[in-house]
Amino acid sequence: MHKIGVFVCWCGSNIAATVDIDRVVAEAKVQPGVVFAKDYQYMCSEAGQNIIKDAIKEYGLTGIVVCSCSPRMHEATFRKAASQAGLNPFMVEIANIREHCSWIHKDKEEGTEKACVLMRAAVAKVTLNTPLKAGESKVVKRALVIGGGIAGIQTALDIADAGFPVDIVEKNATIGGRMAQLDKTFPTLDCSSCILTPKMVEAKSNENIRLITYAEVEEVSGFVGSFKAKIRKKARYVKEDVCTGCGVCMSKCPSKKGLNEFNMGLNNRPAIYIPFAQAIPNVAVIDSTQCIKLNTGKCGLCEKVCTAKAIDYTQQDEFIEEEYGAIVMATGFRPIDASKFDEYSYSTCKDVVTSLELERIMNAAGPTGGVLLRPSDGKHPHSIVFIQCVGSRDVSGRGKPYCSKICCMYTAKHAMLIRDKYPDVEVHVFYIDVRTPGKNFDEFYRRAAEQYDVDYIKGQVGKVWEEDGHLVVRGVDLIANEQIILNTDMVVLATAIEPDPTARKVANMLTASIDTNDFITEAHPKLRPVESPTAGIFLSGVCQGPKDIPETVSQAGAAASKVIGLLCKDKLTTNPCVAHSDELLCNGCSCCEKVCPYGAISYDTHLINDHGVKETRRVALVNEALCQGCGACTVVCPSGAMDLKGFSNKQIMAEVEAICL
Amino acid sequence: MHQTEKETAELIKQISGSDVKKCMKCGKCSATCPAYGEMKFHPHQFVTMVAHGKVDELLRDGTVTRCLSCFACVERCPRGVEPANVVAAIRVLAEREQGGSNFVPDEVPALIAADNEIPQQALVSAFRRYRK
């Protein structure tokens, strides 16, 4: 005999304004099996929880339905309350009458009717609930960080600091990421590599951190606490533990046509190279597309000059397999391709550069040794025009609909640095809005305009073209309400940033959800900003959304603290709502095995006693530790053998029937 | 038919299909416009004027029709506002104005009777032209 209790929450006016609570309570009272129904202003409050606990004890309730907000918000609260009163926590059902009802309805009559329907469905389901017991799973005390930029480095350092081993997997030959390419950083104008390289060195020397560079994660299986990853370490053709980083090979290499990726392709590098002076590991790598020896079999100069005998042309990709308790995505960003904006002549005029290219031009280790020179003829420019929002806030399909967040500040930084170092250079900045929310940010921008005399023009540029050896910019000054034509020597485009193209692949591998712009989605945009909805996957840096260095470092620390919190646990409680197969009904078709995204289903031959007939059959088996309770197998199972605990086919049908009543 | 200024603005929005609320006031249309100096009001301004329902002055000012219909503003607008379509709508409105045509339909039979060699296209384009 069921004794169901129904508890209807007002959620202040969130629910009560659109749902007639009294009617829901009255209708609940007449549902089959319901022996108690009550409403309260805030069911999640301590007083509200006590109403539930008291009712369970007083009426000996066998199941309860709470009509309130989404189970994502308070299911755990009510389950805990139930279990404190001696009821199995899986005998609690939530009817979501807020997100699914009151918040989306304006008409109280309609809202009330829907709330009643949702309540009826939950009551119908709870009468078929069975007590479930959560199991336990292990926690592998090692973390994986994917991406070795400032986000990945900081996350790894913080995790390592807490005493847990961490692996950083970086796709490039060195860690450092985008920050290593920057010249100075806003708003303090300190040198980027001066503050980054100590962290890189720390990551290299920390005994809890293993750097796996020039490598990519290829496969991930498992679940929170117990992931298994397969990492491909690409062939460097240089023995990492033998190379001393002396650089002699670089100077002797006859193939010098490879574009220098670190300098954004502004100059060339040899086929064997160390990405930059402070690279970590300080080990050469051979670009197999450019190497003469690897392509024709002749040359071998680097092998001859290498005194350490580190060159190995026969090196193959290696695979590393490792178990991890938690995985952090720190895959970073890249600027979008500016050649899509042909009105700015980026692909046809050498003196039209992107901001990241300007960073390299301004940097002492860059192609011009830090001297501001025009890329076309190597002459000193006398005038520079900056164009903001190139591809940001653009819904035309050529750009990105979001604000890239960092451009206003780095443009102010560039403008200021140029005016400081070369006072003879005129600097104009075309802007739509100057967005500088951040500590000391607006003061920084105003300093560029007021102290350094940077000419900020409210308006956009419509066209850039080349004429008689200089560039012509046609733009508009919206404040003066006039179209202006400027002759200039260089144009700098503040191109939008987008997630690194590897983010999508990695996210798919980790079953982490991504948004329409390929940024990784947080579990909650406000309250769980560094976690992915997939348990055990954490987010660090721009892969989650545009952010600057200070924000990235704070987020990296936040992600690390979440990882540490997880790795500190000895055991994790598993979700008991997993699939199970009725071996009497299973026909051994393998449909479930094929759809299972977690590899939780396998097949085995069992001796079955089918109503007195004994025979050996091939049947499905569910690994409860791997099953995430998604229910895909129950949908494809043609014989109805597969069922999900807590969401059985019978329960779902009972809900549907209650809705259609 | 008498219209209020606001109604005219609504009509312009309807004819042009341009969603002027999408404008983020970046000015790229005006930065791009090759006929900028020819017009009293500029692309970013007439988008704002339509958005604010202040279109009488825009309609009275003939220079807006010096728009070349090159559609550079439509091509380059990052928000898909389509300023050139606003100009096209203003042209259509002018054509719709009664009494603005070079001649009225009633005069046509007499014209054809007087000169039956007159090309059909000339008649159609004469309807489209207007006096101000």
Shape field of chain A:
globular
Mean pLDDT of chain B: 85
Strand order of the largest sheet of chain A: 10-7-6-18-29
- The tally of structural domains of chain B comes to 2
Instruction: Give the % helix of chain A.
Output: 25-40%
Percentage beta strand of chain A: 25-35%
**Count of domain modules of chain A:** 5
Mean pLDDT over the full residue set of chain A: 95
Named CATH topology of the largest domain in chain B: Fumarate Reductase Iron-sulfur Protein, Chain B, domain 2
Instruction: State the secondary-structure class of chain A.
Output: alpha/beta
Radius of gyration of chain A: 31 Å
Order of helices and strands of chain B: HHHHHHHH
Overall morphology of chain B = elongated
CATH class of the largest domain in chain A: Alpha Beta
CA radius of gyration of chain B is 17 Å
Number of strands of chain B: 0
Largest interface between protein chains, with number of residues from each side = A-B, 21 and 22 residues
Low-confidence runs of chain B (pLDDT<50, min 5 residues)? none
Number of helices of chain A: 19
